[in-house]
């Protein structure tokens, strides 16, 4: 396992190095959303006062050991929150392979062991007090911070769900080849607007995707026509073709989503998308809508990341409020993983 992770890290770096590159908003996209009863900044101030420091210390240790886990744990929050809400249902396991983890949409998702590791530390300090759902949110926040992104205040008070279904993940997570209409629909059914979409897509300023995720749709079989995506920058495409061989369906080679600065939470993702160098179709699709394109262009030209960072904090708060269980709903488990069948 350790060797596999080392290889992954090496592959990301190698590909990253070889790929170095050279309006007014409508109300529907406005941030932030409405507060949710039961969630509060500092919810554990009395019941577990050190929890946020504990999570940060553990995240620091995790990322120091393997920096690819920072992005992985940021992605983890997206996969938890979009499916049945932010309730740690992604941690539940199914013996019959019918849980969220078994969905194609969870392909390549990492961080299960690390969430469990953080939970164990938190349990030792404050037994049966802090939910796994909150730990996922705190870990994502710290992943951003440890990549030199903002350290925004996080609401806590979520409780854990007990249901996990593959078909929910199949239905609720947008595939990487989604177009802009599909992306906006996936987000809007969850109550997230175009601005949440374009801001949260900025998470792809760190981390990587495996060739099997994008090579077919972008390099070798765009729209099922056996050609390269015509909207992809030609020099970048040539570079990607070197990394991802044709015809390898399970190619796990990791390619940086933002090779300019794969572990730096910055604006270069938007500069790349503006320059037709977004890695996933869903990244490039942000240029196909006047509002999301306007935002990409503004961030690509911005001298400072301040506006993006403020928007990001608001959008992560919105996503962190999705379908949460609070008060007497749900449960606080001793471990995050549990079998549902
Ligand atoms: C807008 C729709 C989105 C789509 C279609 C999408 C899709 C993907 C895919 C396919 C990967 C690569 C998986 C792999 O090959 O291993 C990925 C990676 C990633 N995604 Fe997204 N994503 C979206 C939104 C988000 C959001 C909202 C976040 C976080 C808030 C996020 C954070 C990440 C991160 C950090 C990575 C890198 C993971 C790693 O290095 O292990 N994504 N995403």
TrEMBL record:
GO terms for cellular component: extracellular region. Pfam families: peroxidase. Gene3D superfamilies: 1.10.520.10, Peroxidase, domain 2. Ca(2+) 1 binds at residues 80, 83, 85, 87, 89, 100. Keywords: Calcium, Disulfide bond, Glycoprotein, Heme, Hydrogen peroxide, Iron, Metal-binding, Oxidoreductase, Peroxidase, Secreted, Signal. Heme b binds at residue 204. It comes from the Eukaryota. The active site is at 79 (proton acceptor). Its EC number is 1.11.1.7. Disulfide bonds join 48-126, 81-86, 132-336, 211-244. It is an enzyme of class 1 (oxidoreductase). The record marks 75 as: Transition state stabilizer. Binds 2 calcium ions per subunit. Ca(2+) 2 binds at residues 205, 258, 266. It is found in: Secreted. One of its GO terms (biological process) is response to oxidative stress. InterPro entries: Haem_peroxidase (IPR002016), Haem_peroxidase_sf (IPR010255), Peroxidase_pln (IPR000823), Peroxidases_heam-ligand_BS (IPR019793), Secretory_peroxidase (IPR033905). PROSITE patterns: PEROXIDASE_1, PEROXIDASE_4, PROKAR_LIPOPROTEIN. Its main location: secreted. Removal of H(2)O(2), oxidation of toxic reductants, biosynthesis and degradation of lignin, suberization, auxin catabolism, response to environmental stresses such as wounding, pathogen attack and oxidative stress. These functions might be dependent on each isozyme/isoform in each plant tissue. Belongs to the peroxidase family. Classical plant (class III) peroxidase subfamily. Belongs to the peroxidase family. Ascorbate peroxidase subfamily. This is Peroxidase. It comes from Panicum virgatum.
């Amino acid at each position: 396992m350790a060797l596999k992770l080392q290889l992954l890290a090496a592959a990301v770096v190698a590909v990253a190095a070889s790929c170095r590159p050279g309006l007014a908003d409508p109300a529907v996209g406005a941030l932030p959303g409405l507060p949710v009863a039961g969630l509060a900044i500092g919810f554990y101030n009395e019941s577990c006062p050190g929890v946020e420091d504990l999570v940060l210390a553990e995240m620091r240790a995790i990322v120091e050991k393997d920096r690819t886990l920072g992005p992985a744990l940021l992605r983890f929050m997206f996969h938890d929150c979009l499916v049945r809400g932010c309730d740690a249902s992604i941690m539940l396991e199914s013996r019959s392979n019918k849980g969220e983890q078994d969905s194609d949409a969870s392909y390549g998702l990492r961080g299960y062991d690390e969430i469990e590791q953080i939970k164990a530390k938190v349990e030792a300090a404050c037994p049966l007090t802090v939910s796994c759902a909150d730990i996922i949110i705190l870990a994502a926040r710290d992943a951003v911070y440890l990549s030199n992104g903002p350290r925004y205040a996080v609401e806590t008070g979520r409780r854990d769900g007990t249901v996990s279904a593959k078909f929910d993940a199949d239905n609720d997570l947008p595939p990487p080849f989604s177009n802009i209409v599909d992306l906006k629909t996936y987000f809007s059914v969850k109550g997230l607007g175009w601005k949440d979409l374009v801001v949260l897509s900025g998470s792809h300023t760190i981390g990587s995707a495996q060739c099997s995720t994008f090579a077919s749709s972008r390099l070798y079989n765009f729209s099922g026509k056996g050609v390269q995506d015509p909207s992809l920058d030609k020099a970048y495409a040539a570079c990607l073709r070197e990394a991802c061989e044709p015809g390898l369906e399970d190619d796990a080679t990791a390619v940086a989503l933002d090779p300019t600065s794969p572990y730096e939470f910055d604006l270069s993702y938007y500069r790349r998308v503006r320059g037709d160098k977004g890695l996933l179709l869903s990244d490039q699709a942000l240029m196909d809508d006047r509002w999301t394109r306007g935002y990409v262009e503004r961030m690509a030209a911005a001298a400072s990341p301040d506006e993006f960072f403020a928007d990001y904090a608001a959008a992560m708060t919105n996503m962190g409020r999705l379908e949460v269980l609070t008060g007497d709903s749900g449960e606080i488990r001793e471990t995050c993983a549990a079998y549902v069948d």
